[in-house]
Amino acid sequence: MTLPGKALLSAALWSLASVATAQHVVLVRHAEKVDASRDPVLSGAGTARAEALAGVFAGTGPDLILVSPFQRTALTAVPTIAASGAPVRVIALDGGVDAHLAGILAEIALQPDDAEILIVGHSNTVPLIARALGVAAADMPDCEYDRLTRIDLTTAAPSGTVDRYGAASDC
Questions:
Q1: CB atoms < 10 A from the CB of 165, how many?
Q2: Pairing of strands 64-67, 147-152
Q3: What is the biggest distance separating any 2 CA atoms in the chain, rounded to whole angstroms?
Q4: Which of 64, 140, 138, 76 is nearest to 104 (CA)?
Q5: What is the DSSP string of the chain?
Q6: Do 104 and 93 contact (CB within 8 A), yes or no?
Q7: Which pTM value belongs to this model?
Q8: Residues near 107 by Cβ (< 8 Å), separated by ≥ 6?
Q9: CB of 119 closer than 8 Å to CB of 129
Q10: Tens digit of each residue's pLDDT, the chain (171 residues)
Q11: Which region, left, alpha or beta, applies to residue 58 given φ > 0 means left and ψ of -120 to 50 means alpha?
């Protein structure tokens, strides 16, 4: 995509994000995977991290969980789903990353004012989602699994904080 194309995409995504009504988004990368195959399951460390993610919500849980079609994102969310009963929506990747981001933003915009949404993404999508929601985000190295970004969309200028959860990543 050319630079003007990226600028147009960025403007379009920001436009969608600015109409979002969900108050809080929690954004994480999927937990550690067992191997580098196309659609692997979680490793032992990944399963432990997924359990730690459920603990982040301390009995309340999110109102909605968004994942990609890859099983590692859904498996990362499983303990949170079990603890909270939150519904899960798979956001397609068929149209590429840009369409995936647009799908996430559209889903957020449909949620009520008091919604808390957990998004489980990938190292290449997590920073893009945060930026599309109006929050600065550093790129994510392949070795980073413990970043948890909380985004508050209740004000005209979204704000975000980065926390860590589970075992520290080996980066």
A1: 16
A2: unpaired
A3: 45
A4: 64
A5: --HHHHHHHHHHHHHHHHT---SEEEEEEPPPBSSSSSS--B-HHHHHHHHHHHHHTTTT--SEEEE-SSHHHHHHHHHHHHHH---EEEPP-TTHHHHHHHHHHHHHHTS-TT-EEEEEE-TTTHHHHHHHTT-------TT---EEEEEE-SSSS-EEEEEE-SSPP--
A6: no
A7: 0.88
A8: 64, 66, 89, 91, 117
A9: yes
A10: 443 444 434 444 444 444 445 699 999 999 999 999 999 999 999 999 999 999 999 878 999 999 999 999 999 999 999 999 999 999 999 999 999 999 999 999 999 989 999 999 999 999 999 999 999 999 999 999 999 999 999 988 999 999 999 999 998
A11: left
Q: Which two tokens stand for residue 32?
A: 């550690």
